[in-house]
Amino acid sequence: MLPSSLSTPENLQTLTSDIKSWAVEFGFAEARIVEPDLAQYKDEFKQWLDNEYHAGMDYLANHGDMRFYPEQLHPGTRRVISLRMHYLPQSVETVERLKTKDKAYIARYALGRDYHKLIRKRLTQLAKKIEQTVGDHGYRAFVDSAPILERQIAEQAGMGWIGKNTLLLTPKAGSWFLLGEIFTNLPLPVDKPTPSRHCGSCTACLTQCPTDAFVEPWVLDAGKCISYLTIEHKGAIPEELRSKMGNRIFGCDDCQLVCPWTKFAKYTEESDFQPRHDLDSADLISLFEWDEATFLKNTEGSPIRRTGYENWQRNIAVALGNAPSNEATINSLAKALPNATDMVKEHIRWALEKHSHKYEH
């Protein structure tokens, strides 16, 4: 039962305009409203799973059809408020850092505070602001935290289109932003969907992926993706992919960096997205020499904590194998070898062999 203040289309339209204004006040770049139609993606998603392109992310195969029917995730859902927030700090280098092989490259969303915490807080603030105006509206907020087809929802809301690199693109800001959603029981007026995808004949993201992770446009084999390998993957990194990883130790931005729409990127004004511990310019050796206590301390409240200390060392060992050969790099690898786990030792030995260094096993 809607409150009388929302009994007319005009009142609902006014509320929708207010929601979009409040979203900007809470730090979002944009908010759009959609009544999603997601069942159309079931066959495509099932085929992707059947091809095992989700690699070791078994959770993507869970939850049945819930991701295609929002009302199963939040009963009573009538609309989804799709929101985006810029995360790229203006002061941070991107392409130049990838070229500096003795420096670490960390995906730019992960340099500061964990975006889950920041965006979830703002989503909740917005939902409560709506509640103050209309009363209990039945809502649930999400940020990369449930089986949700968030990019498809955003595309249907007219926020942009899904590019060939599987990321959401918008002519307003490229793809340097994060998404969040509020599922609501309010029958808000909806925005028009994006009429078409504007990638044209461009294939830069496909052809310049370091590990050739794209099977075809809009189809990613996660098992070859550097973001998956450095964050989600457990165990040894396939040897044939190690040299292709360069100095990327947590995530990868290459398919964004080569996208022509990147030139329209907007920078974040959020202090929480600013780099911590000089992670945007840190030397590989200095990061490799963190002990576990230092890793846990320096990644507190950071998305980097997700990969764990052992995989952090594994990733950096690979990057050091791809770094310029010099005494400092070789000594750092050799020094870490005796006390490393068996899995990390494999990658250290690979790195040392790349530097043609003689050492005792």
From TrEMBL:
Kindly list the positions annotated as binding [4Fe-4S] cluster 1.
Answer: 199, 202, 205, 259
Where is the catalytic site? 144
Molecular-function annotations in GO = epoxyqueuosine reductase activity
Q: Which residues bind tRNA?
A: 234
Q: Name one Pfam family in it.
A: Fer4_16
Q: Which SUPFAM superfamilies match?
A: alpha-helical ferredoxin (SSF46548)
Instruction: Please list the residues that bind [4Fe-4S] cluster 2.
Output: 209, 225, 252, 255
Q: What cofactor does its activity depend on?
A: [4Fe-4S] cluster; cob(II)alamin
Domain (4Fe-4S ferredoxin-type): give its ranges.
Answer: 186-219
Key words of the record: 4Fe-4S, Cobalamin, Cobalt, Cytoplasm, Iron, Iron-sulfur, Metal-binding, Oxidoreductase, Queuosine biosynthesis, tRNA processing
- Compartments where located: Cytoplasm
- Establish whether keyword Chloroplast is in the entry: no
Q: Does the keyword Oxidoreductase apply?
A: yes
Could you tell me what this protein is called? Epoxyqueuosine reductase
